[in-house]
Amino acid sequence: MKMRYVLLGLVLMAPLWVMAEEQEGAPGRTIEDLFLSQDIELQILRSQALGTDPEMKRLALRSIRAMVEQGVTSDGVFVVLEALASEGVSRQVRSQGAIVNNFPLIRREATELLGQVGGERAKNTLLRVLRDDPEVVVLAEAAYALGSIGLNQNNEVSDYLVHTLLRENARSTPDNNLAYSIVISLERLSEANGGLANPEVINALIETASSPYIRTVRMRAVDAIVNMRDHGR
Predict the structure, then answer these.
(1) Mean pLDDT across the stretch 125-148?
(2) pLDDT by residue (tens digit) across 129-138?
(3) Contact by Cβ (8 Å): 45, 64
(4) What gap in Å lies between CA 124 and CA 129, rounded to an integer?
(5) Which of 113, 167, 169, 166 has the alpha carbon at shortest distance from 138?
(6) Are 88 and 101 in contact (CB under 8 A)?
(7) What string of DSSP letters covers 165-176?
(8) Which helix (H) or strand (E) holds 133?
């Protein structure tokens, strides 16, 4: 898995949580709706994703990764990815009161694949992940994936990322990987959109550069500030 932790070595203020509408024309199907599908491969993916065995979920993700790499995806495949990205968070399975499908590494991989699929719907799903997921490993992947997609209409994505970064900066022991992923994504969004209009982006990066992160993160924030000043010129 291409997780960004290797880059480091060890390596949400305002009411931002009103989600954007689903992509115009996108069917609002759920993974349960796929039971009606006549596509055998899709039925297999659904069964693997809905089970409580993490190995079956990994098999589903392996198949989806192969499809994504071949450029072959469908609405049904996307629905499966959405479900896996919220596995154990918004979609919970309980046994005797305990959640039995809380698999952060499954959510992380599904989140990574959503970034590769791209588009408005993937962006919206990733914003929900960034809002709801309690695991920093998943949040870091979601932040990185949002930068890879590059969409930032009305500063929606950059506002989410800045909110998350400022929250992390305020912690006594902030997570280096999450901050590093957000810094990279803000820079990518700036480059893809000819700069970022929200002045809070630079302020958040300046704060990051002086927060208790490892030197790699602090210097990356400084580099991002320098590079982003050129994007709007």
Answers:
(1) 97
(2) 999 999 999 9
(3) yes
(4) 9
(5) 113
(6) yes
(7) HHHHHTSSS--H
(8) none
